[in-house]
Specification:
Four copies of one chain form a homotetramer.
Chain A (H helix, E strand, L loop, with lengths): L1 E6 L4 H11 L4 E7 L8 H4 L12 E2 L3 H5 L3 E4 L5 H11 L3 E4 L9 H8 L12 E3 L2 H9 L3 E3 L3 H15 L8 E7 L14 H4 L4 E2 L7 H13 L5 E7 L6 E8 L7 H8 L6 E3 L17 E6 L6 E8 L3 H15 L16
Parallel strand pairs in A: 1-2, 1-4, 2-3, 4-5, 5-7, 6-7, 8-10, 12-13
Antiparallel strand pairs in A: 8-11, 9-10, 11-14, 13-14
Helix pairs in contact in A: 1-11, 6-11, 7-9
Chain lengths: 344, 344, 344, 344
Amino acid sequence: MIKVGIVGGTGYTGVELLRLLAQHPQARVEVITSRSEDGVKVADLYPNLRGHYDGLAFSVPDVNRLGACDVVFFATPHGVAHALAGELLATGTRIIDLSADFRLRDAEEWSRWYGQPHGAPQLLEQAVYGLPEVNREAIRSAQLIAVPGCYPTATQLGLIPLLEAGLADPAQLIADCKSGVSGAGRGASVGSLLCEASESMKAYAVAGHRHLPEIRQGLNLAAGQPVGLTFVPHLTPMIRGIHATLYANVKDRSVDLQALFEQRYAAEPFVDVMPAGSHPETRSVKGANTCRIAVHRPQGGDLVVVLSVIDNLVKGASGQAVQNMNIAMGLEETLGLSHPALMP
Amino acid sequence: MIKVGIVGGTGYTGVELLRLLAQHPQARVEVITSRSEDGVKVADLYPNLRGHYDGLAFSVPDVNRLGACDVVFFATPHGVAHALAGELLATGTRIIDLSADFRLRDAEEWSRWYGQPHGAPQLLEQAVYGLPEVNREAIRSAQLIAVPGCYPTATQLGLIPLLEAGLADPAQLIADCKSGVSGAGRGASVGSLLCEASESMKAYAVAGHRHLPEIRQGLNLAAGQPVGLTFVPHLTPMIRGIHATLYANVKDRSVDLQALFEQRYAAEPFVDVMPAGSHPETRSVKGANTCRIAVHRPQGGDLVVVLSVIDNLVKGASGQAVQNMNIAMGLEETLGLSHPALMP
Amino acid sequence: MIKVGIVGGTGYTGVELLRLLAQHPQARVEVITSRSEDGVKVADLYPNLRGHYDGLAFSVPDVNRLGACDVVFFATPHGVAHALAGELLATGTRIIDLSADFRLRDAEEWSRWYGQPHGAPQLLEQAVYGLPEVNREAIRSAQLIAVPGCYPTATQLGLIPLLEAGLADPAQLIADCKSGVSGAGRGASVGSLLCEASESMKAYAVAGHRHLPEIRQGLNLAAGQPVGLTFVPHLTPMIRGIHATLYANVKDRSVDLQALFEQRYAAEPFVDVMPAGSHPETRSVKGANTCRIAVHRPQGGDLVVVLSVIDNLVKGASGQAVQNMNIAMGLEETLGLSHPALMP
Amino acid sequence: MIKVGIVGGTGYTGVELLRLLAQHPQARVEVITSRSEDGVKVADLYPNLRGHYDGLAFSVPDVNRLGACDVVFFATPHGVAHALAGELLATGTRIIDLSADFRLRDAEEWSRWYGQPHGAPQLLEQAVYGLPEVNREAIRSAQLIAVPGCYPTATQLGLIPLLEAGLADPAQLIADCKSGVSGAGRGASVGSLLCEASESMKAYAVAGHRHLPEIRQGLNLAAGQPVGLTFVPHLTPMIRGIHATLYANVKDRSVDLQALFEQRYAAEPFVDVMPAGSHPETRSVKGANTCRIAVHRPQGGDLVVVLSVIDNLVKGASGQAVQNMNIAMGLEETLGLSHPALMP
């Protein structure tokens, strides 16, 4: 039984980790920290967990208690993992960080986008970007795993088959992405109120969103050269789900794109390439760790449209984190993650 | 491994059965029938099931194939189980009927409310009402189980502690119930369109809803006498969930209602009596087989208010059906049903 | 042209006043105050108002500027009108207060429910409760009008015909009320987030809600004696709308309740008694100043069920405030309020 | 007072016409037709209209009664206006057709996309495409007006300033559009059920949507040459609203795009170019006849992103139809259309 610690478990990725780990046959949450909720039982904050974690209460972060765990998840705002990771790694535990702290290889770029100095640049070399479909081998032996963001997961999985195959023109890629409101977190903000965010649709951060450099970094690697990417996120009136609509120019019309995608993901347990002509719905992955993808070439033109959907809290955060844990701990990769989506 | 058949699996209770049974370690769906979808793979109709039932396709109902199953669920409109049950029971299989066909003990009353003759009155004697919290022993040996309706489950679980204890005045009970739209089924009807049912609230069937006689029958049994019940259902702009707000006069102010409810359900795995002062949310049971209950006596008056929430598709239908299967087949009652609700 | 001032216009009742007054042919907003948004144009905070109030910006409250208006609306949290009303009334302007400050006749009771001393008990005598269907004559000459709360409006309009006629047993009245989330205001609170309040239903404040004494006060007056009232509010996953489901015992079965309601409201421009057997939907009044009512006597029993729906921001707040203004200023009562609801 | 007829008034564009015309000071609905609802009062089908059209009932289409009107709106499925328009025009009335029947100049192309022969090719020459921002002069004297579709309105208004100025590369334009569910109409279909369409996002008709040729036709005209357009519509979990996210390559970085858009629409009463850096929300136009637009050039690159929002039932259908009526009848263009959007 793997001993698990969670730092910062009061937000949506925290409660989602608890939901998923409650069903995991080989993991047990030993510690969950929150400064603001110290002493509160997790089931009092999240009544869906009543009966599942009755002994577990939030506690103030303590390196000794966390260090005694086999794996420590960080479900924290950016900056927190920077501060604690070094000390924790010294205890020998593994860190799986759901925040953005170790996703960018370049500390300077991180600093530019997050508006503060990078707090642990010396750890970047050992940090592994936790996208199993790209980095599985490195994850197996990683001590510090940076779980990809939600938009980056949906976008990279949709575009890398084209880029790895050298088919897409890297100069102009577009990711028009639509996210449910849970992507904004559980903080009390006017913009996330039901009365503000429901019955409406809007783009935001068109000038530049923090996930842009992360996506670009991954696409650069897949393309083997710098790509030009335009990323437009939209707030969508639903709780969960990301729908990435991806545009790439593919001049070569002789290639069988459907076969390309199917082959690229043939061995992947959590990527589902749908039949040609499909339109994946975000609800088909609600609560599940699956990314569903469909490839289109409308009117047989140069512009290829890839549709890629995930649940931002599962494959886009906590589910992918558990998938990383399974890989890193030598477990079956799908353990605790094989339930179907909730539909309707 | 229990062999399962499902008659009429294209509606919401059908797909929910498939979702729950996909996670059940001791059951396997062998047959699923639908005349209209004959030959279609279940995963083509319900993409959330892709990867879970890849070999399974809908087929035309066939008594031999169904009879070879250990358990056959009916997830059909009323009248269908009447027609098939007799023949099927003769094969020795168990029937767990999610429709209303065998819920009422009185064939005449059934006929009045459903506007057609009862199709199998000779089977009523052996039919067991599948509310485990009341009928667990009878369910163990039942061949024909009538799974309670959604409103009846939430309402009965909320009121029977008061009635069994003889505390509530049986002359005037009120059930003001709010249901998500999935209770109306997957049929294409204008009233269930997103543009008609979202951003709105309404009562319906105030003059008399088909669940009224079913609830009354259960409450009569609990009270040991005929009760007077007013039942007002409301359509609520959400997919899943029932919130029953129940009103009963309890003159005796010396009784500890919180303790009464806690004791009544102390051994029940799927009824959660919340702490005094709680307000259960339907989302706290979304996708889970749990009924959460809170008891209030506002301003210390005579009128007791019980709040009872379930997921209408789980504890109000398919989850309760699986719970019945577990009991009837001698399995652990919680098998395949122990996952937490999806929240947020 | 009536000169209008608005104190505290940044919340939902404030922007709704602006929306309604933009269509009002005889009123013009001269001043709108907000300490936090001083200098900000109203159209910058509320883009739906772009093109309608391009010269209008929030300013710090100033008694001279407000006093120069013919009418001053307060769309503020409780306590603010207490502090300003006396000084403003001295300037000769009329006050129409949308907050709870002057709704209760009894300063002690106000203090008990709002947890602070009443700040202006000396003004209570001149305050008029602004429910036109009850108090129209007093409103005509009022200087200080307390606009009823949203739950109180829907509940009183639904129950007073029965109470005024002496038909309902006053000892036990029940108001099971469902409100959209805008009733909680525009403040950033976790409970009002889309991810917390959508796809869910819950009761709240069952032990006692601040609208209880206000409703009871109005019903006492209608009944001519103290009533026993149980009031259970529920949070419903929609933006606007209140659905009050009201229960009263009416022993006399000879009375024609439909006719009673139709006669009571025959001359009322904003109360619509629907045909017998109707189920009013909240969306049928979305954005409109109408209360729609239907009366039922299920199964011909003693318990009468009244269904009453309003838009909490219109007939439950800002629309009723404008209706009061029209009456008090001698205008046609329906001016600026005659547009149909937005449906779908 | 203009006498108005409406053919096919039972759908969402029909009821929206009634809502808007109820507030129009110079128009009066004399006839409204529906074969299926013959004899039913409009207020019985649409309770939001109770008190507004109490004498008006649906009737079977009759050319004499319609021909006696000054203007006849068609709010019908495609093909209906083809069949009736010729005969009606002969009576001298004006036709404002909200369907797709006369939008495409090329009868062959119409036939290809709609899967049936064009029913009135001889009328195409006199048909005027009713986008006032492009065709105002022609509308003034038109007898037959084809009201643009919802996606075409939002997309054309967003792209034509760039194309008219010769700034955008016409070879590759992208319209990634998100629509509320009311765009699918009021027909009972499984895909539009609340339980299917809420809490989810999906693209549809990526291979080719019927609005594609209409948008292309308008953009060709603006560009003065054939354009290459990829159009991907998405179903969004809300009732009303279209959000068009438009991508165009603009190599010239010296041009002030903000000024370009502001100048293009300076005299337009229903196009609001928002300040630089804005992100228009669909709710800011809910119920209003406004198109709000913002222009972005992310990271200062070649790709320009235009955000364009409308209410699909107003500026995308019935509001634009009334705007056309005002122009064609010589009234003030904004008459009956000047109310603000409903927000929240």
